[in-house]
What does this fold into?
Amino acid sequence: MDILEELKRLTADDERESILSSINNFKDWVSEVGPLLVDDPECKTRFELLTKKAEDHPWIFLNFPNSPMRDAFRIAVRFTREMEVKSIKGNALEGVKSGNSAYVSQERLKQLESLKSDFDYSRLIAFLKEINLAFESEMFFSVGCLLRSVLDHVPPVFECPNFKGVYSNYSGGRSFKYSMKNLDDQIRNIADSYLHTHIRKKESLPEPQQVDVRTLLDKLLEEVIRIEGARHSQDATQGPLRLPERF
It folds into this structure.
């Protein structure tokens, strides 16, 4: 039995009024929902207290918005939603943990490690490996900050002083420049919010999709590898490679 799917069925909006229409319907519902409230002792205890109160005092269940029955139903709904969020996050990270969909693929890391260049890529590779570990461990604040470090680190490869120059001056094609501007806009805004937001009375924490710019990051790394490969080939035959002129 899929516990989440069963909970979603039992807490559906169109079932609520039928469940709460009589104490017998409510008892039948409790007998199905109660065993599914796993891995959250506090929630289960609160649910059991409310259901017992509802069964001991069935006359208060009908039109009271905060009756024990309705509160028990709300607890089950909240538990279901939290379980669904965990399931979504788990699915998003499953590929990373299996090594099949790492934030930065192992193949890209191997390509960077094998580059012959005047630049030392060890720091960039360390950034990327830490991004993989942080994303796998659901350390999304760290992922955002590390991505910003990558953008600040690579511009010299493109003969640019900063990352804005990569999409403003480097002639890598319209699609590449558009992708890099999009990458820069997303990561700088996210990292700024992570680094410069003061403590608040109520916080919200990032989800995986907030820092998931894998496709754009891979396009950047692909271009780094292409440039270095072309530069090495040119050095071996005709001297130093000239990158496309800026405009």
